[in-house]
């Protein structure tokens, strides 16, 4: 049985990796650290483009676990047929909730309170006052109520929002109140002052925020996207931004990276951050804890956390 573990963090930086495995460092360099056929566990390099992440998969004939360091696994699912049946694909639930929720709140506050305009005025050395909406007394709709969506609501709680509505793929109860299914969106959108997207990218959510979705949002509402770019129809969003009816704060875009000259850069009422929801000082210690825990579970034949699918299974 193969025992190579490919890590995108140098093995020496971990404190308690289980013994009996052969740890190799690979962060997406051109040269592989060993034969992909000997890799039993592949921890996917972080903040690399999809072609880099999936490049070794075809040769990983004996891999048992693919562990991402991202919450979303859509880029790996697109190439998962390259590996044999029985491989577990796990995501990084527990790693990015704090950082991504912080950014969702920061983008919301910055957009509502006009921070981008203040920065531009400062650069011109111009004292530019004005009246801006507060987050207090606003109605917020969170679309995608997994761990990140719940963490966003935790951070909204002290800001005296009027209401938080929660939507996920299917309805359920949560500690803070009911989570409604996606089918409830048409009734919820007209009531929301702020719509925060934190849903994974799936066949269901790709293009979810289309012209019809946006048209149901109330005049002057803010769309915040910390999910994935393709959740939003960029052309439809541009039309609403250019009309001045909606504003947006986007940590992710479609296409991504957003190329120079793209009209989204100069659209009125938009704040863009370059997909930085996860990479903060909070990432590395949480990522190390997750990887260490998963490897210990694997060695001790315990159930793994965050299993998104098993290749070749009809239950996925």
Total strands = 14
Which sequence of SSEs, written as H and E, runs from N to C? EEEHEHEHHEHEEEHEHEHEHEHE
Characterize the biggest β-sheet: 8 strands, mixed
**Shape call:** elongated
The total of helices stands at 10
**Would you tell me the structural class of the helices and strands?**
alpha/beta
Please estimate the helix content.
25-40%
The residue-averaged pLDDT reads 96
Uncertain runs with pLDDT below 50, 5 residues or more?
none
How much is the radius of gyration in Å? 21 Å
Q: Strand-residue fraction?
A: 15-25%
State the distance separating the first and last CA atoms: 26 Å
Strand order of the largest sheet: 8-9-7-6-10-11-12-13
Summarize the structure.
The protein is an alpha/beta fold.
If you had to describe this structure to a student in words, what would you say it looks like?
This protein is α/β, with parallel strands linked by helices and about 325 residues long. Helix content is about 25%, strand content about 20%. The chain has ten helices and 14 strands. It has helices at about 50-55, 75, 95-110, 115-125, 145-155, 185-190, 210-215, 235-245, 265, 285-300; strands spanning about 5, 20-25, 40-45, 65, 90, 140-145, 165-170, 170-175, 175-180, 195, 220-225, 245-250, 270, 305-310. The strands form two sheets. An eight-stranded mixed beta sheet has the order 8-9-7-6-10-11-12-13. A six-stranded mixed beta sheet has the order 2-1-3-4-5-14, with no helix packed on it. Helix 7 (about 210-215) links the parallel strand 10 (about 195) and strand 11. The radius of gyration is 21 Å and the shape is elongated.
